[in-house]
Specification:
Blueprint lengths: L5 E6 L4 H11 L4 E8 L10 E5 L7 H6 L4 E4 L10 H23 L5 E7 L26 H19 L4 E7 L2 E2 L6 H7 L4 E3 L5 E2 L2 E2 H14 L3 E5 L5 E2 H7 L5 E3 L1 H11 L3 H6 L11 H7 L7 H11 L1 H13 L1
Length: about 325
């Protein structure tokens, strides 16, 4: 008698994290066919795959049923810079529609396990946050921070789905920024350097996770059918000014009482005021993940920053310009 091998679907499969996950899933023993959804072509060829150039805001249950998908990792997102509020609002609505469609499909297909990648920003950057913050802490995203509120809303939708569909296991990973050789700098700028003026009285510790580690954690959740909510953060921290130096980002440092209003006048402080990530840390405890799975991260937060700095053409250009000025 043969045992049917697990069929795994991934939305957003051509994105940065989706492509990294597929690399690991292809090498994971015991898995069957991979089923992918993305509007863009695959980043690299993958064996034993059914790839659909599809917008997951449209129905996908037919494909899930046809290939007897048992596990689905929802990684598709339509994030846009908070600097353009119209784009941010449109992306927010797209994210809601995509998740609604995926949940609708999961309820009508034999999905036994659903995985969602959330964000550390759902906790909110607040001065009274515990250090470190655990999964049972309340979710308090800043009202003006669309990115965080999208994930918070998604988690609410997922929990409601889980209650209505108790036969489907649910895994939510609240992840700090993911860095590596293919990561971009845009999200880091939006989170931590939205204006030309930095705040000299704030130098918070920051967490990062190496992309390879996150892919391994996702694979572990898939193979072990791991349910629950888990924080994901690599070992150690990198302080804000260390990050700025590694990425050759130049800011003039002033006391926050001056930097904040001047940034607002210059049009660069809107995002900073919306989330305050450059003032108060969101430092997560990953103890639950360690205790439940035994997983130990292979790379530190500093490793993740170094990999990005060494591989980014944008960073290397800025480093060369800084050297020329000196």
């Amino acid at each position: 008698m043969t045992t049917q091998r697990k069929v795994v679907a991934v939305t957003g499969a051509s994105g940065y994290i989706g492509a990294k996950l597929l690399e690991h899933l292809e090498e994971t023993p015991g898995l069957g066919k991979l089923v992918t959804f993305d509007t863009r072509p695959m980043a690299a060829p993958i064996h034993n795959i059914a790839a659909f150039r599809r917008d997951v805001a449209t129905p996908i249950e037919e494909e899930l049923n046809r290939h007897r998908v048992g596990t689905l990792a929802h990684l598709a997102s339509a994030h846009r810079s908070a600097a353009n509020r119209r784009d941010a609002a449109a992306a927010s609505e797209r994210n809601r529609l995509m998740l609604e469609s995926v949940l609708h499909a999961c309820a009508r297909a034999p999905i036994e396990h659903l995985i969602y990648l959330s964000s550390h920003t759902v906790y909110g950057a607040r001065p009274d946050n515990p250090l470190p913050i655990g999964e049972d802490a309340p979710l308090r995203p800043a009202p003006g921070f669309q990115y965080a509120n999208d994930h918070c809303r998604a988690e609410g939708m997922l929990q409601a789905f889980s209650q209505a569909n108790p036969g489907t296991k649910l895994t939510i990973f609240r992840c700090c920024p993911v860095l590596g050789t293919l990561a971009g700098v845009a999200l880091l700028r939006e989170f931590y350097f939205p204006g030309g003026l930095g705040q000299s009285d704030y130098n918070p510790p920051l967490q990062f996770v190496y992309d390879d580690d996150l892919a391994r954690v996702l694979c572990l959740a898939i193979t072990e059918e791991l349910p629950g909510v888990f924080n994901v953060a690599g070992n150690g921290v990198v302080f804000l000014r260390e990050l700025a130096d590694a990425l050759a980002i130049r800011q003039t440092l002033l006391p926050s009482a001056l930097a904040q209003p001047l940034n607002r006048l210059a049009g660069g402080g809107v995002a900073a005021d919306a989330h305050n990530l450059a003032r108060w840390p969101v430092i997560m405890s990953a103890a639950r993940l360690h205790q439940t799975t035994g997983y130990r991260f292979r790379h530190t937060a500093q490793d993740a920053v170094t990999a990005l700095a060494n591989s980014s053409d944008e960073v290397q250009w800025r480093l060369r310009k800084r050297a020329e000025i000196r």
